[in-house]
Input
Amino acid sequence: MEYIQTVLFQVPASRLEQASETGGLLAELDGHRAYLKQQPGFRDLRLTRSINNEGNVLIVVETRWADDESLVRYETAEPNVAGIIRKHEDLLVRDSLQVLDMEALRTEASFARLESAEAARSRLVLPLIVPLGVLAFALLAIYGLSRIYLELDKGSAVGLATGVAIGILLIAVYVANNPRMPAWQVGGIFVVVIAALAGGTIWALVQEDEGEATGEPTASASPGASPAGSPAAGGGELALTLGDNFFELAGQKSPTLSVAAGKEATVSLTNTGIAPHNMHVADAGGQYPEAFCNPGGATPCSDPNLIKAGGTATIKINLGAGTYDFRCDFHPLEMTGTLEVQ
Output
C-alpha cells in the first residue's frame, strides 16, 4: 500500500522558462528530492507537466509514501512541496494550486499482474541458477584447460596460459568500464569463452584418443639389456617407454626397475605419447631437489630433460644400494615408478 500527495498548479506558458531556470521553482522542486530521501517512509518524487506550449501549463508534483503517518508528518512540517510552490506565487496562475492526499488501491488480481516475471525469477530461480552456473563454468574451465595443457609441450602451454591471463584481464577491464553493459554482450562473452573451452577440450581428447589408437606401447629390451626386474650389469641397458601419462616396462605400468649398485646403468627412453615427458630420479630421502631436473644435476635426469612426442632420450644411473622413486616432472602425480638398486 502507498500513500500519495499530489500537488497541481498552473504556470503561464510565457513564464515557464523563468520557472525552469537555475534557482527557479522547478529547479528548487527537483533539488527538494535530496531532502525527501532523508525522510522516513519516502519512496519517490515525480514531476510532470502538460505538453501544451501555449496558454497555461499544468504541472503535477507527486510524492509517494510507505504509510499515512509519514505523509502527514511531512506535509505538516517545513519544507514541503506546497510550501516551496507558495514561495513562487508570483509565477502561478491565480487559484490554480491544489493539494490532494490519496491512497493507492490495488486488488489481489492487479497485484498478481504487477508482480513481474523478473521479480519472481530473482527471488526463486536466480539464487539457484547463478551458483550452479558459476560452479559448472569453473569445472569446465578447470577440466578443459588441464586437458589442453597436457597435450601441449612446455613452450606452447606457457604461451596459452599467458594468453588466457591476458584475455581475462581484458574482459575484466571492459566489464569494469561498462558496468551497465547490455545483456547480449554479457551472453556473448560467455558463449565465446565456453565455445573456446569446449573446442579445446574436444581437440585434446581427440589427440589423446589418436595416441591410444596407435596401440599400447610395449617395452623392448635392446641387445644386452637385462630382463625387467633384474639388475642391469655395468654398461647394460634397459628400455623404458613413456606414455600419456605413465612409465611402462615389459607391459607393466608404474614399473619397478632394477639396476646394479655402484655401476653405471643406462636406461633408454622412448616417448610414445603426445605430451612431453622426462624421467627424474629422487634422492635417497625421496626428495626432488630440483622441481625440473637437468642432466648432470644433483639427481639422475633424462638427457634431454624434455622429450617431445616420438622422441628418445637416455638416463645414466650410478647410485648406492637402496630404493629410489622416479617421476616425470611434467606429470609428477600421475607418472611415477620405483628404482631398485642392489
Remarks:
- The CA atoms of residues 145 and 326 lie 26 Å apart.
- The first helix runs from residue 16 to 20.
- The longest strand covers residues 3-12.
- The helical segments are 16-20, 25-36, 68-75, 81-86, 108-114, 117-150, 154-177, 183-213.
